[in-house]
Amino acid sequence: MTDSLTELNRDERERRYRALIQHSSDATAIFTTTGKTIYISPSVKNVLGYTEEEALGMNVLDICHEDDREALEAVMAKVIENPGVPIKGHVSRIRHKDGTWRWLDAIVTNMLHDPAINGIVDNFRDVTYIVEAEKQLLHANRLYAFISKVNQAIVHTDNENDLFDQVCKIATETGQFKTVWIGLFNDNYTTINLLSESNILPEDIAAFKNIPFAPNGPHGTMLSSQAPYICNNIQRDLPLADWKSYANKRGYKSCMVLPLRLFGKIVGSFSIYSSESYFFNEKEVALLVAAANDISFALDILEKTKQKQLADEKLVLSERKLKEAQAIAHFGSWEVSLDKNLTTWSEEALRIYGLPENEPIQKVDVWLEYVHPNDMELVKKISAETMENYSNSAYFHRIIRKDGSVRNVYVVSKFEFDKQGKPTGIYGVIHDVTDLKLADEKLQQSEANLNMIINLIPQHIFAKDYNGRFVFANKSFATLCGMEPEEIVTRTMSETIPEDNNNDKYLEQDRNIIDTGVQQVYPSVVFNDLNGKERIFHTTKVPYTLPGKNEKVVLGIAQDITEQRRTEKERANILADMMQRNKDLEQFSYIISHNLRSPVANIKGLTELLNSVGNTDEDIATFVRELAVTAGKLDEVIKDLNQILQIKSNASEHTELVTFEEVIADVCLSINDQIKNEHVRIVANFSEAPEMTCIKSYLHSIFFNLISNSIKYRHPERTSVISIESQITKDKLTIVYRDNGLGIDLNKWGKDVFGLYRKFHSNADGKGMGLYMIKTHVETMGGKIYLDSEVNKGVIFTIEYPTTL
Amino acid sequence: MEEIYEGDFVIIDDDPINNLICSKFIKKVCPRSTVKTFTLPLDGVKFVLSYDSVDNIAKTILLLDINMPATSGWDVLDAFASSIGFRQQQYAIYMLSSSIAIEDRNRAKTHPLVSGFIEKPLTIASIHKLIAEQ
User: Looking at the predicted structure, is the pLDDT value of residue A372 above 70?
Assistant: First the structure.
């Protein structure tokens, strides 16, 4: 029984075991050390689809996934080393008969030592569903962790660059993507530029900067579809050969490109590369889209914050600028709220009134307390009018600050109304014009000063336009024209001074100055004044642009130098005169010394002869006689000298009105014999100027010497004719004396003709005193004498006296 | 005893008394010399230009006054200089003047025709000096 029971039990157990083996999802195989199957349980069909017959002789290493082969070989080695010890095998992919991969778990025992078995026992089962479930769970956890971290990053970053960096980092670390990067499109959507990345090899980064993208590539497709782009098998599906080869090189099997939006518009991309094909399943895609949307949302928020910040900064800046502008311009502003009865003042308005800058709220009427008492009436009147009519106002008045300083202010006010037309407030500006007013007053004062100076100075100042019309004339210039300055303006030169003054020439000069812009100086402009009197001006003309008009005119300053020129000329004359007199004096002293020495030398010579031996009586008599003659000559020279010196010292002798007629008559009477003997004819005409005030004896001496000389040096071949006439002009009296005698060779004697002891004729007596005496007499009375002569024709003496004498 | 000068003398001066004094002194010192005097300068010029003393070994000494009416001593020199008939090597010209002006002396010193300046009156001593220079 026991046995049968045992037998039964054994059979039962055997049957059960077989059934178990046959139907079990577990299977058992026995391999050789090389992996060849020498036994396989029938349940292999349940696990891998092969029949026992098919499975026998198969090598496990032939049907395993190549990725798992190494691990399997390692397990095998370990098993061989440890006989009898069951060892947990590697969970590996083995190909099912239908071609799919099945995950198999195994317990492997080395039973080579057991002769009954003599192989490696591999007990294995299909764990595919467990591996897949684990995988999916892992996947889901990873995605949730990824999106949660992305959201944390969004909350904690305040700028997009940080956000992008963190998202990329999270994507590779938590999301376990192989490589991710974020780029922004350019404005034309022709290139994309890498901004943040994770796991791009450093040597590849440059290839992501500003890259153009193909329209049928990931980015182009994403843009044209406005939706995420997914490629789960790059090698098969990506149409871009170069990208394919790059992906292959870097081990990218699938990729996804998600749009990043700012205010709904695509601005960039979030690109994800995976090392696994078919990585982007439905769940994956949904979560990544959510993440990309979250990033886009964050971008919107960041942008809004940024814009608000900018607006805030702008507002602060413009408020500060307004304050500064008010302070610079001394422009304050204020607003009255009528219902609250309060005024809000700007800082500058407070400063203008001397109120504390930090008290902008003031009572409505406070400003009235500051109004200058003298302006109070006006201010109150205007104020009442505006309140009555709700009219706008603008007016000047003065205020007195608490410290006593007075400011000039200009106030403009306007009413504000509500929809019903009821006034709700008044606003306005207050301008502190004190400094402006002071500057204006100063300017006016300096203008007045300048005007006064311009009208006081003796220089003639004028300005003329391109057509020669006066645009300005000072008092001095106007007086020259006999007008008032304002009368001259708009007139031309000819309409101002009718005298002929080369007015056309001036117009030409002036236009030239305006055209060339070059100033001119005319050192000596001759100009006939109103009375026809000639005047000389030193004129400077400069081009000048009329202030505020941009009109080019010529500005002239003329100085009357008539008097200066006259005195200069006078001085030059005096100087020339003095030089001549000095020369005359030198000549005088030379001649005197010579003519005194000559007789002295003779006396010395004669006395020495007298003292010498061997003189005959006749010699001695001759020497003595000549001594007497010489002594007489010496006496004569001394007398001449005396006479000359007397003339010069008697310059202040009594003058009287002398008629020329009378003097000539006296002279003729004294040399009557000679005149008669030589048949000299004297023609006199004094009708124009019959008389002059002079020293009578001098005038007598002049005519005496002239007539004597004419007789002495008369021409031997003709009757001697002497003509004397007097003329008078504006400033001088002229006596012209002519004869028809021998004349004097002026080429030879010109400079010495009036010299003392000058004789020009060796054939007549005379000692060379006459002309010298004439000149001395003429000059002693303040006159001048000139000689014109031609040999054998006669002489013309011209004697001039200034009439002022 | 010095040698007696045998050259001739010509004197041009408008002052006859000076000419007398000069002639008398020259005769005392050089009794063999001929002395010609001219009060009219042009006559003197005419004489000098026509007078041929080529056979006389000694130079003719010409004493020329400066201050003369119509024609001065300088004019006379100009007349000589501009005349082809003037034989300069035969004459030793001295300006003889009572002028004490330095200009006259300087002009005499620098004039190419003039050998010297003698202050009037001519004396025996100045004649000796004159001869010694020949």
Answer: yes
pTM above 0.90, yes or no: no
Say whether residue A597 is in contact with chain B using an 8 A CB cutoff: yes
Sign, CA dihedral A160-A166-A169-A174, equals negative
CA dihedral A449, A451, A456, A461 (to 10 degrees): 140
Assigned CATH for B9-133: 3.40.50.2300
| B3 — pLDDT class (breaks 50, 70, 90) | low
Q: Please name the fold of domain A135-306.
A: Beta-Lactamase (3.30.450)
Cβ distance of B24 and A619 shorter than 8 Å = yes
Give the tens place of pLDDT for each residue, A151-180: 888 888 888 888 999 999 998 888 888 999
Contact B24 A768 (CB under 8 A): no
Interface probe for B, chosen from A607, A609, A629, A769 (most Cβ of B below 10 Å), is: A609
A258: CB partners within 8 A, 6+ apart: A222, A228, A269, A270, A271, A272, A288, A289, A291, A292
Phi-psi region of A743 (alpha: psi -120 to 50; beta: other; left: phi over 0): left
Tokens 């030409």 locate to A508
**Would you tell me which residues 745-804 of chain A have a C-beta closer than 8 angstroms to some C-beta of chain B?**
758-762, 768
Whether A583 contacts A632, CB under 8 Å: no
Residues of B in contact with A612 (CB under 8 A): 28, 124
Residues shown for chain B: 134
Instruction: Note whether B81 contacts A: Cβ–Cβ < 8 A.
Output: no
Instruction: Count how many residues are written for chain A.
Output: 805
* Topology at the third CATH level for domain A2-126: Beta-Lactamase (3.30.450)
Q: Which has the closest alpha carbon to A606: A615, A561, A746?
A: A615
CATH for A457-560 (3.30.450.20, 3.50.50.60, 3.40.50.2000, 3.30.830.10) = 3.30.450.20
CATH superfamily of A329-424: PAS domain (3.30.450.20)
Assigned fold of A650-802:
Heat Shock Protein 90 (3.30.565)
Strand partners, A260: A268
In a mutagenesis test of the A interface, which of B12, B14, B24 is the best target, namely the one with the most A β-carbons within 10 Å?
B24
Pairing between strand A37-40 and A179-185?
unpaired
Q: Choose among A406, A430, A435, A436: nearest CA to A331.
A: A430
* pLDDT over 90 (residue A133): no
pLDDT for A242-294, tens place per residue?
888 888 899 899 999 999 999 989 999 999 999 888 888 888 888 889 889 98
The answer to whether A604 and B121 are in contact (CB under 8 A) is yes
Among A593, A594, A629, select the one facing B17 at the smallest CB separation.
A629
**ipTM of the complex as predicted:** 0.89
Give the alpha-carbon dihedral of A426, A429, A434, A437, to 10 degrees: -100
Is residue A652 over pLDDT 70? Answer: no
pLDDT of A543 over the 90 cut = yes
pLDDT at A1: 45
User: Position A363: which residue type?
Assistant: K
Say whether B69 and A608 touch across the interface (CB within 8 A): no
Residue A499 pLDDT grade (very low, low, confident, very high; cuts 50, 70, 90): low
Token readout for A729 is: 């002009």
- Cβ <8 Å between A760 and B15: no
Q: In chain A, what are the domain boundaries?
A: 2-126, 135-306, 329-424, 457-560, 650-802
Tens-place pLDDT, residues A195-209: 999 999 899 888 888
Distance CA(A759)–CA(A421), nearest Å, equals 123
- B68: chain A residues, CB-CB within 8 Å: 762
How confident is the model over A709-715, as a mean pLDDT? 90
DSSP string computed for A398-457: EEE-TTS-EEEEEEEEEEEE-TTS-EEEEEEEEEE-HHHHHHHHHHHHHHHHHHHHHHHS
In this prediction, residue A805 has a pLDDT band, given cuts at 50, 70 and 90, of very low
